[in-house]
Structures are given as structure tokens and as C-alpha cells.
Amino acid sequence: MPELPEVQTTVNGLNRYVRGLVIKDVWTDYYSEFHVGKPNIKDKKFFRKFRVAVIGKKILSASRRGKNVLIHLSGEQTILVHMKLTGSLLYGTYKKISNENKNKFIHVIFNLSNGKDLALSDLRKFAKVTLVDTDKLEKSPDLKNLGPEPLAPDFTWEKFKERLFKKPNGKIKRVLMDQTIIAGIGNIYSDEILWHISVHPLQKVEKIPPAKIKKMYGAMRKILRYSIKIGGDSESDYRNILGQRGRFQNKTRAYGREGEHCSKPNCRGIIKRIKIASRSAHFCPVHQKKY
Description:
By secondary structure, the chain is of the alpha+beta class. The protein folds into two domains: about 5-140, N-terminal domain of MutM-like DNA repair proteins (Alpha-Beta Barrel); about 155-285, Helicase, Ruva Protein, domain 3 (Orthogonal Bundle), CATH 1.10.8.50. Helices cover about 25% and strands about 20% of the residues. The chain contains six helices and ten strands. It has helices at about 5-15, 45-55, 155-165, 170-175, 185-195, 210-230; strands at about 25-30, 60-65, 70-75, 75-80, 85-90, 105-110, 115-120, 130-135, 270-275, 280-285. A hairpin with a 3-residue loop joins strand 3 and strand 4 (about 75-80). Helix 1 packs parallel to helix 6, helix 3 packs across helix 6 (about 210-230) and helix 5 (about 185-195) packs across helix 6 (about 210-230). Its cofactor is Zn(2+). InterPro entries: FPG_cat, FPG_Glyclase, FPG_N, H2TH_FPG, Ribosomal_uS13-like_H2TH, Znf_DNA_glyclase/AP_lyase.
């Protein structure tokens, strides 16, 4: 699933390439009986209203909240896109949906005023697209329960510690991934953060020394910023809006490295993978020991 760096990379691309353009039309083949009556475009009735509402609107800017892409339109409305497991927003020309296209998993197309399109590719069809009044965004069901942004200027290490201790008995990997505690961190970056500071993913929050928590805070911000700089992680399906792969998958030290020698200097460990509540955790059992 695209995490904070991948979503921010997408937002940066939207601001560069589609800001100022007008939506001329929108198409989707999303439909699911499970979503009937729900406020997203997989419900046909909602999509009809969505289409009428967005046609003719100018894209003013894009921003991110947690793992959500927010496309702000004229008329005080915002398109909210959660790319879920396999989604990517792509900018180009995708007018005909067939196996001859660059991407056969396109399920939403916004036709733009410059003759190009903004398309949502989504292999597993889990992504969400909805429309929210801009002034009600923070109170919307998708955003209202999110924790603070880890890269926000006012998110200090003291606030980081305070958030973690909302769940003192929680296992640190699960707490880092809890979107109500901190927004935007998922499987990839929780593994990388814990590897860098030598903390076991099953370690309880209350057992982690304050000095380690301060190092965790620093590692978190450094790793997230670095991944944004190099375009995020494209080990799986994620691509930026030009269809290009990010490079963070080439820089991981724990995530996806099961069976490899640990790259920590002077460490002879082998990266191990375990399951934590149906999610994978990658770590080195030699230098990431439980207290």
C-alpha cells in the first residue's frame, strides 16, 4: 500500500502537472454492490452526482493527509483519493481502455482541459474516490480520526513520545502503523525505522527507553524525507504520476530483505520475517533484541 512518501510523491506530481487545469469529464468502470448507498464512486448513484459536481471545476492544488490524496477544486470541493493496496494516479493520455493501453488496470479517468487525462490505475480495485466539501474535510469520516502528521514542523519528539504512549502496552510496530496515533506510516517504513534504531518490532512501547524514542523520532523523519526525495517505494505496484518507479525499494535495510545478511556494520544477523496481526514484520534478530 502506498504510504506517506508515495502519497506525497503523487501530490507533488499533481501540483506540478495538473494544477490550474479544468476537469472536462470523468469516467469509471468501478461498481460494487457492496458499496451501494455509500459515498464513493463505486456506487452508481453517487458517481452520477460526483460527475456532475466535478465537471467544469478547476484543479486549484493537491495536498496529503495521512495516506489520502486531496485534490482541491474550485467551488470549495475536494476529491479525496485513497489508493489503498495497488493504486496509482497517472497523468497522460488514457482515453481508450483496452489491453493495448499502457496500463490495463485503469478504472477512473478524468479528462482535462489540456487534452490529457488523470487516470487511476488500481489492479485490485480497492481504491476509494469520493467528494467532500473542502471546509468539512477534517471532520469527514476519512480524516477525522487520523493522528498528527509525522513531518509537520510542530510535531516534536515530545509529541511523538506522547502519541506512542497512547498505547503503552502496544507492540511498537503496530503502534507506529496505527493511523489514529500517527498518520501515514505503514509496513515498509515501520520496519525501516525500527531497524535503524535497533528496536524489536514486538517490543512494548512502555519498555522502550526515552533515548531510543528520541532516536526513533529522528530516524522516522529522516527516512520519510529521504524516500520522498527519491520518489517513494515501487517494490510493488506504486508509480508516480508519470508512470515512473521510485527508488526506495533499492535502499531498504529490513523490509523485503528476508534471508539476507543484515547490513548493519559488524552485525552478523540474517533478516527475519514474522507475522504481527496478519501483517509482516522484517527485522534483524541480532541487533533488534527485545528488552
